[in-house]
Amino acid sequence: MQLGDFEITAVTDGHFRLDGGSMFGIVPRVLWEKKITPDDQHRIRLVVRCLLVRNGKRTVLIDAGLGNKFSDEFRDRYAVEQPVTLIENLQKAGVRPEDVTDVINCHLHFDHAGWNTIRQDGQVVPTFPNARYWSQRGEWERARDYAAQRDRASFVPDDFLPLERERWELVEGDHAVLPGMELLVLPGHTPYTQGVLLTAGEQKVAFLEDLIPTAYHVPYAWIMAFDLHAAGTLETKRKVLPRAVREKWICVFDHDPHLVAARIAEDSRGRLSVVPAEGFSDNAG
Predict the structure, then answer these.
(1) CATH top class, domain 2-276
(2) How confident is the model at residue 279 (pLDDT cuts 50, 70, 90)?
(3) What predicted TM-score, i.e. pTM, was given to this entire model?
(4) Residue 20: left (phi > 0), alpha (psi -120 to 50), or beta?
(5) Domain residue ranges of the chain, discontinuous segments joined by +
(6) Is 6 helix (H, G, I), strand (E, B) or coil?
(7) Distance (Å, rounded) from C-alpha 173 to C-alpha 192?
(8) What is the DSSP string of 219-247?
(9) What is the pLDDT of residues 75-128, one digit of tens each?
């Protein structure tokens, strides 16, 4: 999709599975299983979707997928499928790892920061040797102290600890990366989860990350049990989603296996729904 000077491409890193009940929190199974059918271990299949944004000067990767450093045990636990990896999809888009100038980590869980690094000659090194890595300072500090966190199982230390401090752009709060590209803090899933808002005139594209991981999570009450602060997620949704409706944002979903992007609509009773957006596709399958 072209948005002003930005060329935006949805790129995927395969699929994985998470517990369906945890993905939908207080929503009864009889409702959510009509949306996504669980397997015999009650897991649902989710895509790992990132965004590639180019403007001729900067090549920005928003989120860094699962990576390839995980064990066979990890692959089995999460039913990881990577017939085509994120790196291969970037190559299909004409982007080599050394071309990437910026990597925005929306947060540092394993399904969002995996390709920050790779193993090479027995060492863990940056996948994108010329890139700056963007994170909220609070998220980076939480990750470095991952063993003390409630969500410690969601961190893979090799995704972030081997990166030298000089590679990080640590910000606090909403922040402009470059003209037309703004980081938005979206607390709830983690205290410092961030998304990205791209703007060209009246047009806006938002990557709201795990605030609304699938289109099914757009209604206010559909909140993940994985969120560290569910009430915070609700507060953030009540702040952000009316703006998305008002300004007609195209919202890209990071984990939806069926729908890449949509606009959010609100009816006269305040109920939210989605209208699929044209111009976005990927190879999620």
Answers:
(1) alpha beta
(2) confident
(3) 0.96
(4) alpha
(5) 2-276
(6) strand
(7) 9
(8) STT---TT-S-HHHHHHHHHHHHHHHHHT
(9) 999 999 999 999 999 999 999 999 999 999 999 999 999 999 999 998 999 999
